[in-house]
Amino acid sequence: MEIWLNPACSKCRTAVRELDAAGKEYVVRRYLEEPPTVAELEDVLARLGLEPWDIARTADAAKLGVTLPAKDVAHRHAWLEAMVDQPRLIQRPIITAADGTTVVARDPESLARVIAAD
């Protein structure tokens, strides 16, 4: 199991507490320090069944000085590049279980689903 997290994020800290309480083994990726590659984002998005703009923290774009492209297939790669360049744009935490189940674990249901899947 792998968790992409920002230690300053309360949802990330909650996810870690729940994983620990469930006795799960996991690898922490501090994605702000070690941003994902475009290929890694593509893989996560495929498992999530989502588009880049679906996991983007769009409200943070202005704070970061980022102008986001249109939410369409023609601009998909530009979204991925923006997220790699500014990983704060990526929603968190993202957890991938050993069986490939991947969730953005911001709510208790998603977190419970990935814990049960591993």
From TrEMBL:
Entries under Gene3D superfamilies matching the protein: Glutaredoxin
Signal sequence bounds: none
One Pfam short name: ArsC
Family, per entry: Belongs to the ArsC family.
Entry protein name: Arsenate reductase
Originating species: Nocardioides immobilis
